[in-house]
Amino acid sequence: MSVVWITGASSGIGEALAKEYVKQGHQLVLSARREPELQRVKAACIKLGVKDADVLVLPMDVTDTESMAEKVFAVTSHFHKIDVLINNAGISQRSLCLDTDLSVYKTLMDVDVIGQIALTKQVLPIMVKQGSGHIAVMSSVSGKFGVKMRTGYCAAKHAVMGFFDALRAEVAQYGIQVSTITPGFIKTNVSKNAVTANGKAFGIDDDDIANGMDVNKCAQIIVKHMNKGTKEILVGEGMSVLAVTIKRFFPNLLFKLVEKR
């Protein structure tokens, strides 16, 4: 039975991953800012058959890096190990560069990049001591190519792809695996919760997101590939994932397609 720590576990892909891991009999640490939502997810997991003591609710803001050592201690005190860390917390963006406050870019980097790195650095020594572990980060197809209205989000997702690819090479010698999860359009609230030019929530579902892959199907695919140790997990349907292949072989074609969207 593995201990799986999921950030951003209060909704969306994080919540779906929690339920999928529970079905496979694992213990969970659920982290996000909203404790009531984490408790709701825990209750749903218990209904799926897990014991109360096997799900630890640990509220956490990934921008509060000073508190992370304390959070890690709480996990190891409860479960005595950390087998899997899924850095899933994050926010998206819906605003043009010309209109966007610099503070919004800083927020995107703090949440989507620095928070993931900071927590990973706290967990890594535990996994090194264990001689095993699996670290994942929730990137995006936006970490592979750029699209309008998401300059800061694309920058952040490119950054985590680069960091965790490099980390993989460094920690393989310790028996630690690293996976970059690269979703396309998944049916979640990511668009509604995205920040706009002044930092306020976008509040609207993109058509692409509203018509995206079912979040539970997405979680099933991710967990299947995590169990296999897949290093880069591309998940989604349609153009959002096809664009990754187009970028690789026909980059100028993709640039033109993105300009016209």
Helix content: 40-55%
Tell me how many strands there are: 7
Structural class: alpha/beta
Strand order of the largest sheet: 3-2-1-4-5-6-7
The CATH class is Alpha Beta
Q: CATH superfamily assignment?
A: NAD(P)-binding Rossmann-like Domain
| Quaternary form | single chain
Mean pLDDT: 97
Rg estimate, integer Å: 18 Å
Put simply, the count of helices is: 9
The largest pleated sheet is described as: 7 strands, parallel
How is this structure best summarized?
This protein is α/β, with parallel strands linked by helices and 261 residues long. Helices cover 48% and strands 13% of the residues.
Question: What would you say this structure looks like, in words?
Answer:
The chain has helices at 12-23, 35-47, 68-79, 102-130, 151-171, 207-210, 215-228, 239-249, 251-260, and strands spanning 3-7, 27-31, 55-57, 84-87, 133-138, 176-183, 232-235. By secondary structure, the chain is α/β, with parallel strands linked by helices. The chain has a single domain (3-92, 100-189, 212-260), classed as NAD(P)-binding Rossmann-like Domain (Rossmann fold). It has a 7-stranded parallel sheet, with helices on both faces. Strand 2, helix 2 and strand 3 (55-57) form a beta-alpha-beta unit. Helix 1 (12-23) packs across helix 7 (215-228), helix 4 packs parallel to helix 5 and helix 8 (239-249) crosses helix 9. The chain is globular. The model has no long low-confidence stretch (mean pLDDT 97).
